[in-house]
Amino acid sequence: MDTPSTSFAPLVPGMLGMVLVGSSVSVSHALVDAPLFTPQAVRYAAATAILLLLARLAGTRPVRPRGREWLWLAGLAVTGLVLFNVAVVRGVAHAEPAVIAVAVASVPVVLGVLGPLLERRAPSRQVLLAAPVVVAGAVLVEGTGRTDAAGVAWAALALGCEAAFTLLAVPVLGRHTPWGVSVHASWLGAVLFAVLGVTREGPTAAGELTRAQWAAVGYLALLVTAVAFVLWYSTVRTVGAGRAGLLTGIAPLAAAAAGTATGTGVPGPSVWLGIAVVIGGLAGGLRASRAHRAGDSVDAAPRTAPSPTPARSR
Fold first, then answer.
1. CB under 8 Å to 68, separation ≥6 — which residues?
2. Dist. CA 261–CA 271, nearest whole Å
3. Selection from 198-207, 254-263, 295-304 with the highest mean pLDDT
């Protein structure tokens, strides 16, 4: 089994994916007053069709899951897609959006520890040291807020689901590739959201969406789901979940940039400081260590196993 790459080039797809995720901040605001489940069902159904088309153009064909792979992929869809969105929406009823955002921004620490363990490797000391720095920078960018006990619980669930989106893909990325994992996660998510939409919102809920909301769904389906999923899983497969996890710190930066571009105001001093801290953490955690450059990496030891806050929507 190949060891995770330590060069910079494989990080670029994941970086672009996180920029697209961060861009969903402004777009997702259009769906605040829309039904919760039905637009997501449409989004993931559209994303599945787009992914199948793009995969065919790329000369690849997703394979059928078998055995335990169904459990990994279904778990990914249930936690990383459905429960994540529910936790975010329910969480902001008990906590300020920044609380949920800060919880989700803590995912580099979780991925830095659990990702390598799933890949049958020792966690990287370099990544573990950099992850809290990235998280601290993200907290400065996102801000903090008030919450109650229920809000803390929803925030913790959102964090767990955010981590599950990456961790549950690790065991199946080897056989299914980023294309296959993205396709199966999307269609399973579409089915789950459709069932919830029909039973809880009614079969005519899609007719309540405005043109702006349909446009938001289209943007999320194409760029934040179909494109971003493949980009993200490509980097996870190449560099490992722990190292890729640091890139999630880019999403708050992209969100701040998108907010400025859409006229929500120029970021304040704390946001600029947070951006600098995130960049510093990324630079420290993603640079190749001396061991990597010498070709004797401890962080990349051989593996024995296969490989919206209303603000952000996956």
1. 171
2. 15
3. 198-207
Query: Distance between CA atoms of 188 and 77, rounded to whole angstroms?
Result: 6
pLDDT averaged over every residue in the chain = 83
pLDDT at 234 exceeding the cut of 80: yes
Q: How many CA atoms lie within 13 A of 160 on its CB side?
A: 13
Six-digit token string for 47: 């994303």
Please give the residue that has the higher pLDDT: either 103 or 241.
241
Given a contact cutoff of 8 angstroms between Cβ atoms, the answer to whether 288 and 6 are in contact is: yes
Residue 246 tokens, joined: 């640091």
* Gap between the Cα atoms of 275 and 252, Å rounded: 9
* DSSP assignment of 33-89: TS-SHHHHHHHHHHHHHHHHHHHHHTT--PPPP-TTHHHHHHHIIIIIIIIHHHHHH
Contact assessment for residue 279 and residue 247, using Cβ atoms and an 8 Å cutoff: no
Tell me the C-alpha distance between 87 and 157, whole Å: 6
Q: How is residue 190 written in tokens?
A: 């579409």
Q: Is the pLDDT of residue 217 over 60?
A: yes
Long-range Cβ contacts of 119-122 (<8 Å, 24+ apart) = 119/4, 119/170, 119/240, 119/241, 119/242, 119/303, 119/305, 119/307, 120/303, 120/304, 120/305, 121/4, 121/240, 121/299, 121/300, 121/301, 121/302, 121/303, 122/298, 122/299, 122/301
Locate tokens 């930066």: which residue? 253
Predicted TM-score (pTM) of this structure? 0.83
